[in-house]
Design goal:
This protein has 21 helices and three strands. It has about 500 residues and is mostly helical. Strands 1-3-2 form a three-stranded mixed β-sheet, sandwiched between helices. Strand 2 (about 230-235) and strand 3 (about 240-245) form a beta hairpin. Bound molecules: zinc ion.
Length: about 500
């Protein structure tokens, strides 16, 4: 076991060192450092891959004699990582990264000039390589299973299809109702209080203060600026977040900080005994996103939350929020309005953006959609589901970077995160019946303790499905999220 642990610790160290270089690239590195930084990161990542797929790791895995449950989980997960890493031939890995290099530039150009045809041949190539990748990894039912499994281990495409279908039946009419009422109240509504002047430093301090109240430990973390907010882990004792501040709009900086702090608290809460092993990581992207979404939406966009924080928000932003009540703020940060751009979408419409991409990805991989027909297929779904139609492809099929990065199978995890957050939140409500009272008092310790115990501490020892079964008694289920949005938004459809 010790030999295996030593080997896995070296691999973990290399990957975390690469993560530090990547974090620096997004936060402090001068532009000129890009080329050498790319080489440095590639060197470390390649070394980690070589160590993982070496005879030494395979030999240590075969020779290891587990003495504890953790040992057993470590062997199971390390073996799975090793198998996945060796199943894909290096020629295919190189072909994929080369195709991504070309596709990213083409996507940028296509988006800037609104010309899908510039990106089309690259997307065709990416889809072909994704199919090869899926064949190499192996799957039970359809190629999409293999790609989904990279991000959401043990989740089947058929589970996602069934869950999304249930969701769509409820969501499309709900959005229609909410949009109608929003249109009728917009003229008089208080929704615009989140637009105004919110000075940078006050936003920074206010967001971090709330993140600290939630339980984000700043002696083992920090926040910096970056163009695209993210969280990253160098060890259980060093988990960092970044944010982006817009002085004229309160939401992106504040909710971005809460979101990333949710991700970071997950990784800070992993059992210290798992440090320097592959178990010290989020178990799936869906579970990871459930943590960020819960703190951001179920808590940060709740009325009890604003009843607690509104006095300090008024103090921090006297110019913009002096006359704003908790109820007004609650309504302003929960405004529902169908929009074309996923990253700007509200909580209710967001999942429809994801389901649209999921349907198209599956159709592309199954050969059921010609790549040339994608823009129209996209726009038709937007119109049918959200009632709005993009007038150009930059606001439609070309808006996201993911496909140019070869990341097919990734999008569903965003929606899974929303659904799982509601499943966990309902289970938590059963265990902490006076939760609203706690939130209204700014007491988040019981919530964090529940998440620590049931989710964080396990790292990768429990899969997403294991966690859901243990806490909710079911697998993936859209019903709790549907109950959550209906309870939160239905009062506002009247008048
Ligand atoms: Zn996230």
């Amino acid at each position: 076991m010790q030999q295996l642990r030593d080997q896995l610790a070296r691999i973990t160290d290399l990957n975390h060192a690469a993560a530090i270089l990547e974090w620096d690239q997004e936060t402090y590195m001068p532009e000129g450092g890009a080329a050498s930084r790319a080489r440095q990161v590639a060197t470390l990542r390649t070394m980690a891959h070589e160590l993982l797929t070496s005879d030494l790791t395979a030999g240590a895995l075969d020779a290891a004699r587990p003495e504890t449950d953790v040992d057993q989980d470590l062997i199971r997960i390390a073996r799975r990582d090793l198998e996945k890493a060796t199943r894909v031939p290096s020629t295919l890995i190189n072909a994929i990264s080369e195709a991504q290099g070309h596709a990213k530039g083409a996507w940028q150009k296509a988006r800037a000039t609104n010309t899908f045809s510039v990106f089309m041949p690259h997307l065709e190539r990416i889809v072909d390589l994704s199919l090869e990748h899926a064949e190499a990894l192996g799957y039970d039912d359809e190629p999409y299973d293999a790609l989904l499994d990279i991000h959401e281990p043990d989740m089947k495409t058929s589970d996602v299809v069934a869950t999304f279908a249930a969701l769509k039946d409820v969501l499309v009419p709900l959005v229609r109702d909410l949009t109608k009422s929003a249109a009728s109240t917009r003229k008089t509504g208080p929704d615009n209080v989140v637009h105004g002047h919110f000075p940078h430093d006050e936003q920074w301090d206010f967001g971090l203060r709330v993140a600290r109240d939630f339980g984000y430990d700043l002696t083992r973390g920090r926040q910096d600026h970056s163009a695209h907010p993210f969280s990253t882990t160098f060890s259980i004792d060093d988990v960092r977040i970044t944010t982006r501040i817009d002085e004229s709009f309160f939401n992106p900086g504040f909710f971005g900080t809460l979101h990333e702090a949710g991700h970071a608290m997950y990784e800070q809460g992993i059992d210290p005994a798992l440090e320097r092993t592959p178990l010290a990581d989020g178990t799936s992207l869906g579970i990871h996103e459930s943590q960020s979404r819960m703190w951001e939406n179920q808590i940060g966009r709740s009325l009890p939350f604003w009843e607690h924080y509104m006095p300090s928000a008024r103090e921090a932003f006297p110019g913009a929020l002096a006359d704003v009540s908790a109820e007004m703020m609650f309504r302003a940060v929960n405004r529902v309005e169908p929009s074309l751009i996923r990253v700007e979408a509200d909580e209710v419409t967001y999942n429809l953006h994801i389901m649209l991409r999921f349907e198209l990805e599956r159709a592309m991989l199954a050969g059921e959609a010609a790549i040339g027909d994608l823009p129209a297929a996209w726009n038709d779904r937007m119109e049918a589901w959200l009632g709005i139609r993009p007038t150009n492809d930059a606001d439609g099929v070309l808006q996201d970077i993911h496909w140019s990065l070869g990341a097919l199978g990734y999008f569903p995890t965003y929606a899974l995160g929303n659904l799982i957050s509601a499943q966990l939140f309902e289970a938590m409500h059963r265990d902490i019946p006076d939760m609203d009272t706690h939130i209204r008092a700014g007491e988040f310790a019981p919530i964090l303790a529940w998440l620590r115990r049931n989710v964080h501490v396990w790292g990768r020892r429990r899969s997403a499905t294991d966690i859901l079964k243990a806490t909710c008694g079911t697998g993936l289920d859209a019903a709790p999220w549907i109950r959550y949005v209906k309870a939160k938004y239905t009062p506002y459809t009247i008048g």
